[in-house]
């Protein structure tokens, strides 16, 4: 499942450069995660890097984008071209 940045975001700019898929960008009021690019860092790291660095713990799983680990791996392969 993709991740989601909640309205508790303080726009600290820490998460965006940590995302290996460039799925995080500045939205109108807070940072947002592109669900089509978010793999929860599957294929890159053991844990989602944005969650690891977030100082306010505002990046939960997105209940509107439920994905299995296999689906996350497929997305990773599609984004990176790696097998």
UniProtKB/TrEMBL annotation:
SUPFAM superfamilies: 4Fe-4S ferredoxins
InterPro entries, alphabetized: 4Fe4S_Fe-S-bd, 4Fe4S_Fe_S_CS, PSI_iron-sulfur_center, YfhL-like
Keywords: 4Fe-4S, Iron, Iron-sulfur, Metal-binding
Ranges of residues in domain 4Fe-4S ferredoxin-type: 1-29, 31-64
Record carries keyword Iron-sulfur: yes
Database matches in NCBIfam families: di_4Fe-4S_YfhL
Protein name, UniProt field: Ferredoxin
Species classification: Bacteria, Pseudomonadati, Pseudomonadota, Gammaproteobacteria, Cellvibrionales
């Amino acid at each position: 499942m993709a991740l989601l940045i909640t309205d508790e975001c303080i726009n600290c700019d820490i998460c965006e450069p940590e995302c290996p898929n460039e799925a995080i960008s500045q939205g109108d009021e807070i940072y947002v995660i592109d669900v089509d690019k978010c793999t929860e860092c599957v294929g890159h790291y053991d844990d989602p890097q944005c969650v690891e660095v977030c100082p306010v713990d505002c990046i939960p799983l997105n209940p509107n984008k439920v994905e299995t680990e296999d689906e996350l791996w497929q997305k990773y392969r599609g984004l990176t071209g790696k097998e």
